[in-house]
Amino acid sequence: MPLPSGEITELLAEWSDGDPDALERLMPLVFEDLRQLARKQFRRESEAHTLQPTALVHEVYVRLVGQRKVEWQNRAQFFAFAAMLMRRILVDHAKARHAAKRGGKVRKLPLEEGLTVAGDDGAGDVDVVALDRALTDLAAIDPRQARIVDMRFFVGLTQEETAEVLEVSVTTVKREWRSARLWLFQRISQLA
Q: I want to staple 26 with a disulfide (CB 3.0 to 4.6 A). Which of 11, 42, 52, 89 is the partner?
């Protein structure tokens, strides 16, 4: 995902400083990137959605409007946060669908297909409820590894961009990305 520079970072700083109009000026600049991110989210899910990528972006916008006192550091952090919001929305939506089906079967996450970096051609269907449950468990043990998975898998940030957002070395990101994927594979296998 191309991350434009300059103006987006400025608007994020203005928004952090309490200017609510900065978000209004920011959204047209990031809207298409957020839609692409939403499309990637939908491609990973095993079931059809009643939501559309544009509707998901609009829901993200509504939730962003409600954010107060966020200290935006850079574009990568913003997109990571937006991806986390998308994940939450999709998980809530999937849980509601499964509850409505009263015990409807949930597809298992094929890790070798599913835990690839966002945008990779090999990304397969993912049950976001199972992944969310496993990521929540991982976050309780190692919050940084869970954030790395969010940034690499959901946002599609490079190892370098992830390292920049987390203020760690690229080597640390590589090591923890491998470790997190292994842990998630084992955890999802236990949950199945």
A: 11
Residues with Cβ < 8 Å from 146, sequence gap 6 or more? 135, 136, 138, 139, 180
What string of H, E and C letters represents the secondary structure of 44-109? HECCCCCCCHHHHHHHHHHHHHCCCCCCCCCHHHHHHHHHHHHHHHHHHHHHHHHHHCCCCCCCCC
Residue 93 Cα distances to 28, 45, 149, 157, 185, angstroms: 25, 12, 21, 25, 24
Q: At what angle do helices 75-100 and 21-44 cross, to 10 degrees?
A: 50
Provide the pLDDT for residue 155.
73
* pLDDT of 180: 93
